[in-house]
Amino acid sequence: MRGQSFPVIDLRVKLGLRHGSQGRNPSIVVVETGSGLAGFFADRVSEIIYARAHEYRGGKIRIGRPREILDARSVLLEPATP
C-alpha cells in the first residue's frame, strides 16, 4: 500500500452516527473494492480477516463463524447521511 493513493472515509460522518471516542489506537482499515483500495477510520480493530469473493454471501463472510460486513463499494457510492 505504500505509495498508493486511495480515499479514507470517516464512517461516523458518512452514516450519520454521533461522534464517539476514538479509542486509544484508532486505525484505518484498508479494503480492496475491486476497482481499487479504500480506507475507513475505525475506533478499534479486534480481528483481521482475509476473505475472497466466494466466501461472501448475503452480506456475510463465512470463515469460521458468520460475520456481517459492510459493503465498501456501497458506502463509497452512497451520499452521506445528513
In short:
By secondary structure, this protein is α+β, with helices and mostly antiparallel strands. It is built from two helices and six strands, in the order E-H-E-E-E-E-E-H.
How would you characterize the overall build of this protein?
- The protein is of the alpha+beta class and 82 residues long.
- The protein has one domain.
- It is 12% helix and 27% strand.
- It has two helices and six strands, in the order βαβββββα.
- It has helices at 11-14, 72-77; strands spanning 8-9, 27-32, 37-42, 56-57, 60-62, 66-68.
- Strands 1-3-2 form a three-stranded mixed sheet. A three-stranded antiparallel sheet has the order 4-5-6, with no helix packed on it.
- A hairpin with a 3-residue loop joins strand 5 (60-62) and strand 6.
- The longest helix is centred in the C-terminal third of the chain and has 6 residues, at 72-77.
- The mean pLDDT is 77.
The proportion of strand residues reads 25-35%
Strand order of the largest sheet: 1-3-2
Give unreliable regions as ranges. Answer: none
What is the C-alpha radius of gyration, as a whole number of Å?
A: 14 Å
According to DSSP, the number of beta strands is 6
Shape: globular
Span of the ends, CA to CA: 32 Å
Keywords, separated by commas or semicolons:
alpha+beta; three-stranded antiparallel β-sheet; 82 residues
Q: SSE layout and pairings?
A:
Blueprint: E1 8-9, H1 11-14, E2 27-32, E3 37-42, E4 56-57, E5 60-62, E6 66-68, H2 72-77
Parallel strand pairs: 1-3
Antiparallel strand pairs: 2-3, 4-5, 5-6
